Q: What sequence folds into this?
């Protein structure tokens, strides 16, 4: 507790969520610090897997992971890699993932699961909803506000897609926080060590490196870099491809292994990969449809295979060092985050680059969620002595002359960050100006990521070049861009119509929220049940206490029997899923105990009177 | 921003890139720079002394695409103009022709300055020559 | 809209103490960062967003000596509108033009020009350092007497620096392409 300044006033609960490629977690802050909330079976990790069962119901988490084997064509995993992306971005990738894509996926991918079409934000929303329910059950109260983590190197569209997922799941997303930054917050919590820290975050599907300065509770990010398409998944796919080739030749199959077989094999490959972090050799084994496959793989072979993947993390690390203006010797500690950092070769590569032994004391699966819970507590006001100052990972610019990008906000600028630029018209009486906004470091627009086209509308008609539209680009603390424009001649705010290049429009998100209304209704019902149970707990506790009072003995036998009956009836319905039934029985118990309460009250008043008089 | 094909063409295929002999008495050379972006532009004109008409114009620019397009357009316009007509070219003409965004207007200013500098250099040379002739 | 120095509570001087600047930036961030306003009404949150984005812009500008000097030049009206080339010494233009021509000769060449490119980079970096080394003295001179000639001199150094920086960028582009 030591480091926190706790305010015991009543606040809205804000949870922290790590929405991971492979697994997701939800955490909260209690009086002793951040804690991961386990699911009803006691597991902290919820698989980021969603499936549509044959009866049409959508399931997420462990149940969906089981369906990955039994119904691979109805199940989707690693959807984080598809967030905020269009078909052209992920074509290569999809060859390795067994997903089916619907027509019209150019700007938002639509996955076909059974007969349902789901976008990545909707899929993620199901994972979020699952986490939300776990938290509500654990905390015994409704959960509506959250901080969600994203890879630091996520661009605007990927961030927006994550925020949309939260909204669809019925969560008010108070902040998107970068994963390595969140990890540093959990790391710096009990360490209270000022200095320069690098966070190397190598997860299931994404890689981030961030360098921070920790100073008296301020966590200032100096630079960040990464690759949103690099993670443990890539290692799995590498091994999977080898095993599939083996099987094709050993089993002499006429057709490729079916999806169920591939998913079983994938599971076997992951198990082998994981055990190679602890043992010098492991076995990939699959028995399927009367065939058996068995292959011994040792750590030396694994390392030979994955060396190019690990190498790809080192370029961003070097760039991040350059951008922060630091040498490896100036980094006090490297914090390892993400499941893939369990691989010994990853640790030795990091040690070689930063010339210091990496810090591996934190649970690499949980540290991001724990940090998100700390950030949640900062936002709710429970933690007042800490503050994150994060940066935008990519430069923001506008397209000019000949497709060249003119940069307005440079990468690694502390957010919120803003820039103002003037625009004019090229033709007499022109009413609109179109601005193309991009993100990235390259000089040409075609090499950068198109964010959106902003149409400045209703410009006062004047001769060419006379108009002066001042446009303000603002990147908020979530790393998300907004644009406002003022016509300087009239002083009026100019309408800005946004056409996002990738991702859902506001209307589409609204529609999805409505579509999930039924689900939301279910959530609401669950919340009402939880609240009714809390109320039942209160009255049962009070009644129990009253039974110790003299007033209990003053009641008639019939009155006492009526109270006991009402208690029993409430206990019977307590675990029912109908809040009205619970409330009804609470009401009955209330009525039955009215005389008891009155008697106790009178006795108390009587005692008080006796105390004051005489 | 939408650009005409003509503009993109100037950017992608700049005209009249090169240089002429600086010591030629009929060649005027202008060397200018835009400090805020670090561009340098050299623009040269070759004038027919009998007619006063610019017969050839060349440029070499180290800088952004807008600076290159501005100087390319300028050399094209200079061809066949008299020295006085050339001095009438304004940066706003270039801005309009290329629909340069405000952030790039200084590129057109640079081109106008380069024209003026080149012609000033030519005039200085002819005046010196005239002096030299007179002195003889 | 208040200026960058005012936003950070500093006297408007070109010479400044980096540690003090950081201290003031952190202190104000604690007050103004949007995280501190998450539970406040929309209007206050918007104000915090606005204020902290300007604070961040101010810190980013002032902590870098070159950006700081550019900011002060602009404040003093020495940067308003496009500068004419008349402000640049002709010798500097000639020099930069020749350096660019030489670099262009090397461009697109095979691996054999690498040593020459590296030599060019070292020379450019040396010129850059030499230009920057003049700044602290000029900064102190401006702070002491506030004479416009000093600002003009600073601008001269910044212009030169900018030209050389472009050359450094070009040579680095070539080197990474040749790698």
A:
């Amino acid at each position: 507790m030591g480091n926190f300044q706790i305010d015991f006033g009543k606040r809205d609960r804000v949870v922290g969520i790590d929405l991971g490629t492979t697994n997701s977690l939800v955490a909260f802050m209690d009086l002793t610090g951040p804690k991961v909330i386990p699911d009803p079976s006691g597991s902290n990790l919820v698989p980021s897997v969603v499936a549509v069962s044959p009866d049409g119901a959508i399931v997420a988490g462990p149940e969906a992971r089981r369906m990955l084997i039994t119904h691979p064509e109805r199940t989707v995993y690693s959807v984080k890699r598809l967030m905020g992306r269009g078909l052209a971005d992920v074509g290569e990738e999809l060859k390795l993932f067994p997903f089916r894509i619907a027509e019209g996926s150019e700007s938002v991918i639509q996955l076909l699961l059974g007969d349902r079409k789901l976008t990545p934000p909707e899929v993620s929303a199901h994972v979020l909803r699952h986490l939300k329910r776990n938290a509500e059950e654990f905390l015994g109260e409704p959960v509506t506000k959250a901080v969600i983590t994203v890879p630091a190197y996520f661009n605007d569209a990927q961030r927006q897609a994550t925020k949309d997922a939260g909204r669809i799941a019925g969560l008010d997303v108070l902040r998107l926080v970068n994963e390595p930054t969140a990890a540093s917050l959990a790391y710096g919590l009990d360490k209270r060590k000022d200095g320069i820290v690098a966070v190397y975050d190598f997860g299931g599907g994404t890689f981030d490196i961030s360098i921070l300065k920790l100073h008296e509770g301020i966590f200032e990010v100096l630079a960040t870099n990464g690759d949103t398409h690099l993670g443990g998944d890539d290692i799995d796919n590498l091994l999977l491809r080898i095993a599939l080739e083996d099987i094709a030749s050993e089993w002499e199959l006429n057709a490729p292994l079916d999806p169920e077989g591939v998913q079983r094999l994938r599971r076997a490959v992951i198990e082998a990969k994981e055990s190679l972090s602890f043992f010098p050799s492991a076995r990939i084994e699959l028995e399927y449809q009367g065939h058996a496959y068995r292959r011994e793989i040792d750590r030396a072979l694994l390392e030979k295979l994955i060396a190019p993947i690990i190498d790809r993390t080192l370029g961003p690390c070097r760039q991040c060092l350059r951008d922060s203006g630091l040498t490896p010797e100036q980094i006090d500690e490297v914090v390892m985050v993400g499941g893939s950092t369990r691989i010994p070769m990853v640790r030795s590569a990091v040690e070689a680059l930063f010339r210091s032994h990496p810090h591996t004391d934190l649970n690499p699966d949980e540290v991001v969620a724990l940090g998100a819970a700390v950030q949640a507590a900062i936002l709710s006001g429970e933690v007042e002595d800490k503050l994150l100052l994060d940066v935008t990972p990519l430069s923001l610019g506008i397209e000019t002359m000949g497709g060249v990008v003119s940069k307005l906000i440079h990468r690694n600028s502390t957010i919120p960050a803003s820039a103002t630029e003037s625009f004019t018209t090229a033709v007499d009486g022109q009413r609109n100006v179109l601005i193309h906004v991009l993100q990235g470091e390259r000089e040409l627009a075609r090499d950068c990521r198109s964010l959106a086209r902003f149409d400045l509308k209703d410009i006062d008609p004047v001769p060419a070049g006379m108009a002066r539209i001042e446009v303000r680009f603002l990147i908020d603390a979530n790393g998300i861009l907004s644009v406002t424009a003022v016509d300087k001649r009239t002083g009026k705010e100019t309408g800005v119509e946004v056409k996002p290049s990738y991702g859902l429009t506001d209307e589409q998100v609204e529609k999805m929220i409505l579509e999930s209304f039924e689900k939301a209704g279910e959530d609401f019902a669950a919340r009402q049940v939880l609240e009714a149970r809390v109320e039942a707990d209160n009255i049962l506790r009070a009644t129990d206490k009253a039974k110790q009072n003299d007033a209990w003995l003053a009641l008639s036998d019939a009155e006492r029997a009526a109270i006991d009956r009402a208690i029993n009836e409430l206990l019977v319905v307590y675990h029912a899923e109908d809040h009205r039934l619970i409330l009804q029985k609470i009401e009955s118990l209330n009525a039955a105990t009215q005389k008891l309460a009155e008697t106790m009250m009178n006795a108390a008043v009587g005692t008080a009177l006796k105390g004051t008089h005489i | 921003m939408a650009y005409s094909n003509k503009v993109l063409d100037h950017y992608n295929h700049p005209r009249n890139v090169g240089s002429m002999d600086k010591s030629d008495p009929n060649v005027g050379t202008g060397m200018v720079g835009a400090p805020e972006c670090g561009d340098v532009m050299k623009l040269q004109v070759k004038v027919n002394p009998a007619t006063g008409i610019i017969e050839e114009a060349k440029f070499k620019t180290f800088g952004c695409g807008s600076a290159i397009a501005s100087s390319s357009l300028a050399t094209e316009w200079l061809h066949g103009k008299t020295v006085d007509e050339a001095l009438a070219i304004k940066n706003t003409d270039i801005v309009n022709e290329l629909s340069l965004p405000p952030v790039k207007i200084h590129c057109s200013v640079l081109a106008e300055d380069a024209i003026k500098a080149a012609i000033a250099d030519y005039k200085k040379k002819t005046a010196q020559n005239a002096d030299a002739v007179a002195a003889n | 809209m208040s200026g960058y120095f005012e936003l950070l509570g500093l006297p408007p001087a070109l010479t400044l103490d980096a540690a003090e600047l950081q201290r003031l930036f952190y202190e104000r961030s604690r007050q103004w960062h949007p995280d501190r306003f998450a539970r406040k009404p929309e209007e206050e949150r918007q104000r915090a967003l606005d204020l902290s984005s300007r604070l961040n812009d101010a810190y980013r500008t002032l902590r870098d000596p070159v950006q700081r000097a550019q900011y002060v030049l602009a404040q003093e009206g020495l940067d308003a509108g496009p500068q004419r080339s008349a402000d640049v010494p002709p010798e500097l233009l000639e020099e930069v033009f020749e350096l660019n021509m030489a670099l262009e000769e090397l461009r697109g060449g095979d691996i054999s020009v690498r040593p020459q490119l590296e030599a060019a980079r070292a020379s450019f970096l040396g010129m850059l350092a030499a230009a920057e080394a003049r700044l602290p003295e000029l900064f102190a001179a401006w702070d002491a007497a506030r004479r416009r000639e000093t600002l003009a001199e600073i601008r001269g150094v910044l212009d030169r620096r900018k030209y050389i920086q472009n050359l450094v960028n070009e040579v680095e582009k070539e080197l990474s392409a040749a790698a």
About this structure: The CA atoms of residues 17 and 59 of chain B lie 5 Å apart. Strands of chain B lie at 27-34, 39-48, 53-62. The longest helix of chain B spans residues 105-135. Chain B has a mean pLDDT of 85.
